[in-house]
Write a structure and sequence with these properties.
8-stranded antiparallel sheet, 12% helix, 2 helices, 129 residues, single chain, mainly beta, Pnp Oxidase, Chain A, globular
Length: 129
């Protein structure tokens, strides 16, 4: 298992993360997106309504590494941000079974190589996957 149980529990409560990709000419793009955790493989799966037409999908097709962040505020009083950053490699897959019935047949699959989490029930964690 790549993720700790605390990280998996947290990710299961969240619906939106932000995926950062880089285009071949070096332009960074960062967009909110749906995601799912494949608990069997430890991979993050990104899906959407027309994912195959998106800039992030094209960036991944052209070899972009990625950073994916999921975070929120556990409370505002006291101020308690928590979250996870996943850095890794990604593949853009076509003709894949959609994660939800109304999504397109394209997905992005992220393989983590570094995971950084904070305030998920323990000390800040940073490790290479």
């Amino acid at each position: 298992m790549i993720f700790t149980q605390a990280e998996l529990d947290y990710l299961a409560t969240q619906r939106i993360g932000r995926l950062a990709t880089v285009s071949p000419d070096g332009q960074v793009q960062n967009n909110p997106t749906n995601f799912f955790v494949d608990t069997d493989t430890g991979l993050i799966v990104i899906g959407g309504h027309a994912l195959g037409t998106s800039k992030k999908f094209r960036n991944v097709q052209q070899g972009s590494t990625v950073a994916f962040v999921v975070d929120d505020l556990a409370t505002i009083d006291p101020w308690a941000p928590r979250g996870i950053e996943i850095r890794g490699t990604a593949v853009a897959l076509t003709d894949h079974e959609p994660p939800l019935p109304y999504f397109s047949r394209e997905i992005i699959r992220i393989t983590p190589f570094k995971i950084i989490s904070w305030n998920l029930g323990g000390p800040r964690a940073s490790r290479t996957a």
